[in-house]
Amino acid sequence: METTKNPVINSDFPDPDIIRVGDTYYMASTTMHYMPGCDILRSYDLMGWEFVGHAYDTLDDTPGHNLDGTEQIYGNGMWAPSFRYHNGIFYINFTANDTHKTYLLTATDPAGPWNKRTIEGFYYDSSLFFDDDGKVYIVHGQKNIYVTELDSEVKGPLAGGLHRLIIQDEERIHLGYEGSHLYKKNGLYYLFTCHGLAYGNEWKTEDCFIADSLTGKFRGRCIIDDDMGYHRLGVAQGGMVDTPEGDWYAFMYQDRGALGRAPMIMPIHFDEDGFPVVGINGKVPETVTIPSTRPEYVYEPLNCDDDFDYTPNENGKIELKPCWQFNHNPRQGLWSVTDRPGAYRIYSGKICSSLVFGYNTLTQRTFGPESEAWVTVDAAQLKDGDYAGISAFMGCYGAVAITSKEGKYYLVMLGKPAKNDTVLGDEDYLDPAVEYERVEIDQECIMLKTHVNFTDKRDEATFLYFAGGEWKKIGINQQQYFKVDHFTGCRFGLFLFSTQETGGYADFTKFRYRICSEKREGQKVVRNFEGDVENQERL
What we know:
This protein is mainly beta. The protein contains no helices and 39 strands.
C-alpha cells in the first residue's frame, strides 16, 4: 500500500471535483483561459493522478478568447467545474464569468468525445445533483446558496420546480459561501461549501450543511479549519468521494502562493448526527495512505518532455500531449509541429507590446517545491523587435528571450514586477515588462532555461542560458505572487511576440522538464531532480 504527502498533486489543479466510477476515480479541474480546457485526470488510489484529456478544445469564439488586439480573458474563462456520472453519462458543468454562460458537457467516456452546450441561466460556482427519484438539481451562488430544479434534459430550470435559498451568509463576510457541492448519503443531503472570511480575518475554511430533504432546513458547521502551518492559507473548497470498500475521503485545495492551488486528500468518518469529521484530529494529515484498486498500475507524469514529433490523426488533427495548453485559443495557421518536424514553431501574427498578448504561447504547469524547464530556441527567422523564449508565466511573469536588432542577436531577461504582495491583481499587469539585462550573443540558436522555487512560499523564478559549456544566469530572480489578475499558478511558457513587424517565426526544440523533490537528512536539505541531466548543470 502506497503513502503520499499532501498536497497529493504539488501543482495548480484548482477547484477539484472528484467522482468514482467502478474502480476508477476521475477529477475535473479549473483551467481558466488555457486551451484545451477543463482538465480530466484519472486515479486508482486518489493519490497518483494522470491525464485522461480535456473536455473541450476551445470554449467560445470571442475577441477575448482569441486574444484579438488587446482583448483577453485573464482571470476569466472556465471556473469551478462540477463532475458527475449518471445513467452511463459523464456530466461536467461550469460557468464562465466573461461570457456569463453556464456550460454543460456530456460524454459516455471521460476521454471523449464531449458534447458541449449551455444551460439556460447563470449559476455561479454550480454543481449538478441527480437525486434518487430521477430529478436533477443545480446548487449555486455566493454568500447566498440556492438549489434549483432543472428539467429532465438539463437544459434549464423546470417550470414550477423547486427553487429555494438553502443557506445564507452574513453581510460582513467578504467572499462568503461558494464552490458548493451537493451529495446524498444514507438518506441525508450533504452540502459542502467553501467559506471565505472577511479581509483581515482567518484563512478560508470548509463548511458542511446537512438536511433530511431538499425542502427541509440545512444545518451546518465548519468541518476543516487548517492552514497546515503554511502562511495562513487555509485548505478549502471541495467535496467527498467513497472507495469501493465504502470508506470516504474529502478532497479540497490549498492556495500555495505562486505555485497555485494544490489538491489535498483527507479521510472522513461520520459522527452520530451524520456530520463528516474530516482529517486527523480536525487537521489535514501530512500524509495519506489509501488502498489502490490497481496496485501495480504506473501513472504517466502530469508534466512532460517533448521532442515535438507529431503526426496528424485520422482526421488530420494534431493532438499535443495533454500536459500542454495554449494561453487562450490557439490561432490556427500561426503554429505548427509539422512545418519543421521536431520543432514547435510559432509564427508572428500581430504587433503587441507584451508577451501576454502574443498568440500561441504554449504552457505547462510548474511543480513544487522546485522545477525547471529548458528548450532550444532557433531565432534565425526573427524580425527586428521579435522576442522568443521561455517564461515563468503569470501576472507578474518573468522570461528569458532571444531578440534581434539590426542583424544582431541579444539575450534579454524581462520581468513584470508586482506592485504588492497581496492577492489583489495589479491594474498594470498587461503593460510591457521591464528589461533587466541584455547580453549580445553571436549565435541564433541557444538553450534557455527557467527555474522556479516555491519552497516555503519563496516563489522565485531564475533565468539562464547555456554558453561555454555551462548555464549562466541572466537578469534578476523574479519574485512572483498569485493574484486574481490571472487567477492561475505559475507556468512554463514558450512564447513569441513582435513589437515592430510581423512575418517572422521561431522554432522551439528539445523541451525538457525536471521536478525537484526534497528530503531532509538531519539538518541538511538534499534536493534531487528527477530524470536525466542532459546537457545541463544543477542549480
